[in-house]
Design a protein that fits this description.
alpha/beta, five-stranded parallel β-sheet, 4 helices, globular
């Protein structure tokens, strides 16, 4: 499974990349804003994304596009989990990211992606 990391803090993006690689995931790319995330989306199966990027509170909108347009399993990464109280999400990992929570989130997102693929769901 290929992971898209959407995070504008380089140190956190590197931590997530290291965790994902250690668990056998490949990295589809690292995006720091919505535009970059959409450019890299076709290469990804799952994504872990920050809720608030340099271009604002764009995480939930990016997640909707990733899920509905590309059928990418999503894990939210945030310093403020309360921002997602009303969102339908796969998993939320609080910052600073805990290795086991990141792994659990990525595995859940990967399972969702496999289920979508096995049912024949195709990106629109």
């Amino acid at each position: 499974m290929r992971v898209l990391i959407v995070e504008d803090e380089p140190a956190i993006a590197q931590d997530i990349e290291d965790i994902a690689l250690s668990e056998g995931f490949a990295i589809a790319g690292i995006a720091t804003n919505a535009r970059e995330a959409m450019e890299l989306a076709p290469e990804a199966d799952v994504a872990i994304l920050d809720v608030r990027l340099t271009d604002g509170l764009t995480g939930p909108e990016i997640a909707k596009e990733l899920v509905y347009r590309f059928r990418i399993g999503v894990v939210y990464l945030t310093g403020n989990p309360d921002l997602l109280a009303d969102q339908n999400f796969v998993n939320v990992v609080a910052k600073p990211p805990d290795k086991q929570k990141v792994i659990r989130g990525l595995r859940m997102a990967a399972a969702w992606r496999r289920e979508q693929t096995s049912r024949g769901a195709r990106p629109t």
